[in-house]
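Duplicate of #3305? Posting structure anyway:
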């Protein structure tokens, strides 16, 4: 299927690896010129070169911390009029809410709620004026099925979801959509690190701990960042103009509910 977005431009956050990289690759394969943002220059440049060689699209990189006003300004200066915005950021740490003071909460909110909102604010009016815009927020399956030790993520990402639910209905008449993609367990460096850390804490082998996690996924495997990216690309497509304010859960069937 031709997704009808060849020649468009995209600003993709946390795009040097993992799910962000999967989204950037999928968009680039559809002919979208991408601006990749991440903190580590070396990893970012390696990913950019990989995408250039594979797709031939224009790829820019911006190595900044998007949780700062300066970082966001630099990203928007590199891609001032994106047709597509993919919001993404690493999740806050796990733990017990009794141990989190106000500063910990503010850091989590800055990264996973305020920063995406600020980037939306910096791009959405241009999208409205051009009569095309696709905003995709990478959140978490924990929005749908909260995880008890991920209270910071549960709170911040659910806050972003609620904000975007209202805004999405205000702008869809201009062919600007806002949707969220909720990943379950995917084969990323972050997830592998969590599984390894969990194994050490439990005194088990990595293989045993991974096998236990896989039992919770009806699909029997971890997700592939490439298939995550392909879903993102479809949401950003010309054909995707009639769904907005939605939460697309991609978790291999782990969520047990009907709705």
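Output from current build:
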């Amino acid at each position: 299927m031709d997704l009808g977005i060849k020649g468009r431009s995209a600003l993709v956050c946390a795009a040097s690896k993992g799910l962000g990289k999967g989204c950037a690759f999928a968009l680039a394969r559809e002919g979208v010129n991408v601006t990749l943002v991440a903190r580590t220059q070396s990893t970012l440049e390696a990913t950019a070169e990989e995408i250039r060689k594979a797709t031939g699209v224009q790829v820019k990189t911006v190595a900044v911390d998007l949780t700062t006003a300066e970082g966001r300004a630099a990203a928007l200066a590199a891609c001032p009029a994106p047709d597509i915005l993919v919001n993404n950021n690493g999740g806050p740490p796990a733990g017990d809410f009794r141990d989190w003071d106000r500063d910990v909460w503010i850091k989590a909110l800055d990264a996973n709620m305020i920063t995406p909102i600020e980037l939306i604010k910096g791009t959405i009016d241009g999208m409205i004026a051009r009569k095309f815009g696709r905003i995709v927020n990478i959140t978490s399956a924990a929005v749908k099925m909260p995880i008890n030790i991920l209270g910071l993520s549960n709170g911040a990402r659910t806050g972003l979801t609620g904000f975007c639910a209202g805004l999405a209905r205000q702008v869809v008449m201009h062919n600007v959509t806002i949707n969220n993609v909720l990943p379950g367990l995917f084969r990323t460096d972050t997830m592998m690190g969590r599984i390894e850390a969990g194994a050490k804490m439990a005194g088990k082998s990595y293989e045993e701990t991974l096998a236990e996690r896989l039992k919770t996924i009806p699909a029997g495997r971890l997700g592939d960042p490439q298939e995550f990216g392909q879903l993102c690309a479809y949401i950003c497509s010309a054909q995707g103009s009639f769904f907005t304010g939605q939460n697309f859960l991609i978790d291999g069937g782990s969520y047990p509910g009907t709705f």
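Confirmed duplicate; merging threads. The longest strand covers residues 176-183. The chain has eight helices and seven strands.
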